[in-house]
Amino acid sequence: MSSNVPIPGGGATTTTGRSAARSRVATSSRWFYASVAVLALSALLIAFLALGEPWNLAPGMTASFSRSIVALVVTLVLVLPAFAVFRYERQSAGGRWHEPAWRPSLIGWAGLLVSLALAIGWHGLRLAFYIARVWTGEL
Q1: DSSP string over 82-135
Q2: Which range has highest mean pLDDT (57-66, 90-99, 108-117)?
Q3: pLDDT digit string (tens) for 13-33?
Q4: First-to-last C-alpha distance (Å) of the chain
Q5: What is the mean pLDDT of the chain?
Q6: Angle between helices 62-74 and 15-50 (to 10 degrees)
Q7: Whole-model pTM over 0.85
Q8: How far apart are CA 41 and CA 37, in angstroms?
């Protein structure tokens, strides 16, 4: 004897289950695109903070010092969590994932790489050399 009563947790066989699944996919894609936007905008912000700054930091260059600190904070607070959301949402889509023609994954990866390269290679090294000079008394 069979029944038409849906089994709780038995899958998305009803129209309500299908609409809930579509809603989860739509929410997931919104988080994915939001993380891509955060990665791209953060990369632009970190690049802007590096523009026009000299390589050597010296005492009294508080604006340059602050810009480097802000770039590192943006990387730690925005870029790394946004990349985690980016990867999670991409992986959770599994086989249902279809990359749009404008390639948001490429934008996300490029945003991450630019942010990390500038934050570590430019801002971080400048701060590290400055701190090393202060500690050794060379300034």
Answers
A1: HHHHHHHHHHHHGGG----TT-HHHHHHHHHHHHHHHIIIIIIHHHHHHHHHHH
A2: 108-117
A3: 555 666 655 666 567 788 999
A4: 87
A5: 84
A6: 160
A7: no
A8: 6
